[in-house]
Amino acid sequence: MNPVIELLKSHRSIRKFTDRKISHELLLELIQAGQSAATSSHVQAYSVIHVTTPAKREKIAELAGGQDYIATCSDFLVFCADMKRPTEASERTGANVVRGMTEQLLVASVDTALMAQNVAIAAESEGLGICYIGGIRNNPQAVSDLLQLPEHVYPVFGMCLGYPAHEPDIKPRLPVEAILKEDHYSDDREQVEVFDDTMHSYYQQRSSGKKDANWSRNLTPLFDTKLRPHMRDFLVERGFEMK
């Protein structure tokens, strides 16, 4: 196995960090590595907010559901889908710009995720730990107000960065047979049942028998309620009308 693949397969979320700070020079290198990710039509539809004010980080930790490591990690980034920059650049050339298309939302969201994952991989290659924070979408308007995000920009997720203070186990993934399908979509119930057994064993070992769960049961809170029902109205208010 080459070292890049080994690094990718060793990912785990880090939620405890040492007091050691990431140098500004390294942080810039990580962002530049992120910029090297693939981007649709070279649009580069993202902006990254480096949140340095302690009070702002503490407020975001609260808005994200009490995730204290947002305030205690070395650096906290908010990755934003940004259609303001490219549409305004196009408009300045004299183009009659059409805004609010669903495809623009998809392009900006995908571009942002690809860029962030490059940052994550680059960070882990330097011995750092990362943790994505989707919880900022619990209160996206409050986060947007706090970070003064303009129209046509929305916060997709945050990322904690720092030097790890713990070494959590690598969480198992679905069998590759469930993910990789040949020529057509095929049923994967059998692989999911096997994976449920794998995850049950993982949780039992990690919790000394205190957590009786598996993958399928852990999905329940995501799908038996309307998860973040405010997001559509929020995105429309941001200018992503999904026309």
From TrEMBL:
Coiled-coil region list: none
GO molecular function per UniProt: oxidoreductase activity
InterPro entries linked to this entry: Flavin_OxRdtase_Frp, Nitroreductase, Nitroreductase-like
Nitroreductase domain: residues covered: 9-163
Matches recorded under SUPFAM superfamilies: FMN-dependent nitroreductase-like
Source species, domain of life: Bacteria
Keywords, comma-separated and alphabetical: Flavoprotein, FMN, NADP, Oxidoreductase
The keyword Iron is annotated on this UniProt entry: no
Pfam families according to UniProt: Nitroreductase
PANTHER family noted in UniProt: OXYGEN-INSENSITIVE NADPH NITROREDUCTASE (PTHR43425:SF2)
NCBIfam families: PRK10765.1
Family, as annotated: Belongs to the flavin oxidoreductase frp family.
Protein name: Nitroreductase
Origin species: Aidingimonas halophila
